[in-house]
Design goal:
By secondary structure, the protein is α+β, with helices and mostly antiparallel strands. Helix content is 30%, strand content 31%. The strands form 4 sheets. Strands 1, 2, 3, 4, 5, 6, 7, 8, 9, 10 and 11 form an 11-stranded mixed sheet that branches. Strands 17, 18, 21, 22, 23, 24 and 25 form a 7-stranded antiparallel sheet that branches. The protein has a 4-stranded antiparallel sheet with strand order 15-16-20-19, with no helix packed on it. Helix 8 packs antiparallel against helix 9 and helix 8 runs parallel beside helix 11. The chain is globular and about 70 Å long.
């Protein structure tokens, strides 16, 4: 199929051009700009893929780097004929144009994107390729693990990789439109070309718009639990995302919001997308962040949000706050809408404080107590709080009796164990759930035969991919299993934890 990708740079040099005449299984497109610190590791992570490098073409598009990245690409392309290096004559100022060019030049069944400072799990391409071949979908996604300097690694977008799903509608995942960065995703190339899907020329949010366009045009996707992609958030990594000013981000968010509103999608589908754009991008990321507290002009933030509200109300008649789900975000909107900006600021200060959030109990229900000015406070109901009332050891593992409290009604499904240091070590435990009265549940949990030593976070799993820690207060029981000691204990924050020695 001939390319319909029109928004591409025209003036460039190509290294290993003859590789572009060879049809392969997967093309990996890497936009490059001043990425010398990580670039070789990024490319090496593709060269060693278990799918076999004969089945892969790497297209690295350099956006006129000035730090030696271009010289490195010349050297690596001389060593590896599978690496096609595209050297742009002029800087485009956005990863969108290099990605579009890579997509236009690709000659493969599938395509995926890799940022120049990130890297792939060794088996990532093979797993996604086999998943797409087997299920026949246009889009598959796996696990992304964020790697940070002073914090434990964490999974990005749990909904995308908590289960192996074959051929499901993206709208069955409530948060399918969250975390739309270009990672751990593989797409059918002719699908992208047939719909002329390309990255818009924006410095920020171009990937969000791209993957919204992908998801609204495909009938089915597949998801896998395997680690596919490592997202680099190490301190020395000065990525474009870190450099972009919040107001500049919001300008591009407005562009995406307007475009989605103009699509006139069915309401039930539109609301899933707008929840992300309004609540996550325009409340959480705009306000519930330290940059808002540090700002010398908070009124600029409120004026920006007023533009968001005006754009929405221009196109839709239903209330914008019906898209806001989290109680804290609904409170912020209420303060904004009623002009209580001092209370608004106090609430965000409470949210971003490192102090433990105190819980008050009213009629046996949990509330946060948010201090406001003049010795006042705002009581805010917790959406979900889980208590462990009983814990008994069994031959297979343990039996728990838990109670769910708060405003949110959930469907309890089981227990998840997640290693505190290795996100690859995550277990969805086999659990029999008995629904008792008054939001009590009995869970009979079977432990895996083999688990790595270390400390584990213990979550109650619900509603497919929801997770919640469980408050506990009891003496420390011990289970002896083969060569390990399983120790269930109360964490510093008062929750159930597991340590394996």
């Amino acid at each position: 199929m001939r390319s319909k990708i029109s928004s591409v740079p025209k003036d460039y040099e190509v290294l290993n051009a003859k590789r572009l005449r060879r049809h392969v299984a997967v093309t990996v497109v890497i936009p490059v700009y001043n990425a010398i610190i990580y670039l070789e590791r990024t490319i090496n992570s593709v060269l060693v893929q278990t799918i076999g490098i004969r089945n892969v073409t790497i297209i690295a598009v350099d956006d006129k780097s000035t730090d030696g990245s271009r010289r490195l690409l010349r050297r690596l392309s001389s060593l590896y004929p599978q690496l096609v290096s595209i050297l742009l004559k002029n800087n485009t100022g956005t990863p969108a144009m290099p990605r579009n060019l890579g997509l236009a030049l690709a000659r493969s069944k599938y395509v995926t994107f890799l940022d120049a400072d990130d890297w792939l799990a060794h088996d990532g391409l093979r797993i996604l390729n086999e998943t797409m071949d087997r299920t026949g979908v246009d889009y598959a996604v796996g696990r992304t693990i964020q790697v940070s300097t002073n914090q434990p690694n964490r999974i990005i977008g749990v909904h995308e990789s908590n289960r192996n799903r074959d051929h499901v509608s993206p709208y069955t995942l409530k948060h399918a439109f969250y975390h739309l960065g270009p990672r751990a995703r593989m797409m059918r190339r002719d699908f992208l070309l047939r719909h002329a899907i390309q990255f818009p020329s924006m410095k920020f949010a171009e990937d969000k718009q791209f993957f919204i366009d992908v998801l609204i045009r495909t009938d089915a996707i597949s998801t896998v639990t395997a680690p596919i992609y490592y997202l680099n958030r190490l301190e020395e990594n000065d990525s474009l995302t870190k450099q972009t000013d919040i107001m500049e981000k919001m300008e591009t968010n407005l562009i995406v919001l307007r475009r989605v509103l103009e699509y006139k999608l069915p309401v039930e589908k539109e609301r899933l997308i707008l929840n992300r754009l309004i609540e996550f991008d325009c409340i959480t990321r705009l306000y519930d962040r330290k940059h808002f507290l540090k700002s010398h002009d908070p009124s600029a933030y409120h004026q920006m949000f007023a533009r968001v509200v005006a754009l929405f109300t221009q196109h839709r008649s239903y209330p914008i706050d019906s898209l806001i789900e989290k109680p804290f975000n609904r409170l912020l909107y209420h303060y904004w809408n009623t002009g209580r900006f001092d209370d608004f600021m106090d609430a965000v200060k409470w949210s971003k404080s490192r102090e433990t959030k105190e819980i008050e109990w009213v009629d046996d229900q949990p509330y946060w107590s948010i201090p406001l000015g003049s010795d006042q406070k705002q009581m805010l109901a917790l959406p979900l709080y889980v208590k462990v009332h009983e814990l008994q050891l069994t031959e297979e593992g343990l039996e728990l009796t838990v109670q769910t409290l708060g405003d949110r009604r959930i469907r309890v499904e089981g227990i998840t164990l997640q290693h505190r240091n290795w996100m690859e070590e995550t277990h969805l435990l086999k659990t029999d759930v008995t629904d008792l009265e008054k939001h009590y549940y009995r869970l009979q949990v079977e432990l895996p035969k083999q688990m790595e030593r270390g400390s584990y976070l213990v979550y109650l799993r619900f509603d497919d991919y929801g997770q919640q820690v469980m408050a506990i207060s009891m003496e420390e029981p011990v289970i002896q299993k083969s060569y390990h000691t399983y120790r269930w204990y109360e964490t510093i924050k008062g929750n159930l934890g597991l340590r394996i020695k």
